[in-house]
Design a protein that fits this description.
- The protein has 267 residues and is of the alpha/beta class.
- It is 41% helix and 25% strand.
- The protein has helices at 43-50, 78-85, 103-121, 126-146, 162-174, 192-204, 219-225, 243-248, 253-266; strands at 3-14, 17-28, 32-36, 58-63, 66-70, 88-91, 180-184, 211-215, 228-233, 236-241.
- Helix 3 (103-121) runs parallel beside helix 5 (162-174).
- It is globular.
- The N and C termini lie far apart (41 Å).
């Protein structure tokens, strides 16, 4: 199979606290990786390092053969960072929609700006750009239908439920065609009755073409949707494997304790 993502010895410290301690793993095209673990273990830091929202201290990240980060290469300028971030689409906990724009404009804004930038770089015509804008608008409509909020395209974020906002955020990430779609605890800001609708949308994205990384505290969802699971604790990968290996045949005592605490919280 085709390796999409390769992470080698990734480390990150904040002041004197080392949050990631030499994390390494690979992800193949079409795989869904669930990252689980207790709060403060390094899950979100890992995801943000992959997206280059946080710059790692050490290590190497490669996506489809393109080196996204290598500590040996030194600091990147902001323009190169923006380009490398396009390999990833990130859906945040808090939706991060622009309140001043309606749903449709939230979806198309970044795609149109990127199209304009590429048109200028490639010395395209005004007609070329117009055609690309039309294509983006058509794709935006299809994506809103796919995530179940097409009827809300003219609404503003304040007029949507949390679940609807998160589904718009998912569509916004998809429209840029990232190599890897990332979710940072996508249901943590939702009421329980809205959690299911967002999880169903994410599960519906699973395909041979969509490679996804999901940081989640929804254990049953992780077991059902993931092809690979990482348990991270104290900045290191304590266990990695299939859902069956991690959930049913765990070897790590930290993982067993984590599962026991999760059961206690649910109870």
């Amino acid at each position: 199979m085709e390796t999409v993502l390769k992470v080698e010895n990734l480390s990150k410290s904040f002041e004197k606290e080392k949050v990631l301690k030499g994390v390494s793993f690979e992800l193949e095209k079409g795989e869904v990786l669930a990252i689980i673990g207790s709060s403060g273990g390094g899950k979100t830091t890992l995801l943000r390092c992959l997206n280059q929202l946080i710059i790692p201290d050490e290590g190497k990240i490669t996506v489809n053969g393109d080196v996204i980060f290598d500590d040996a290469l030194g600091k990147e300028n902001e323009k190169n960072l923006r380009t490398k971030r396009l390999h990833f689409g990130l859906v945040f906990q808090q939706f991060n929609l622009f309140p001043q724009y309606n749903v449709f404009n939230n979806l198309t804004l970044a795609a149109r700006l990127l199209a304009k930038e590429n048109n200028k770089k490639n010395k395209g015509s005004a007609e070329d750009l117009k055609k690309e804008y039309t294509r983006i608008d058509e794709e935006a409509t299809k994506l809103l239908e796919r995530v179940g909020v097409k009827e809300k395209m003219k609404a503003y974020p304040c007029e949507l439920s949390g679940g609807q906002q998160q589904r718009v955020a998912i569509a916004r990430a998809l429209i840029l065609h990232p190599d890897i779609l990332c979710f940072d605890e996508p249901t943590s800001a939702l009421d329980p009755e809205l959690t299911g609708e967002v999880l169903r949308v994410i599960e519906g994205l699973k395909s041979n073409d969509n490679t996804m990384i999901i940081v989640t505290h929804e254990m049953e969802f992780a077991r059902r949707v993931a092809s690979k699971v990482i348990f991270i604790a104290d900045g290191v990968i304590e266990e990695i494997g299939t859902p069956e290996e991690v959930f049913e045949n765990s070897k790590s005592e930290k993982l067993k304790n984590f599962f026991n605490k999760s059961v206690e919280v649910i109870s």
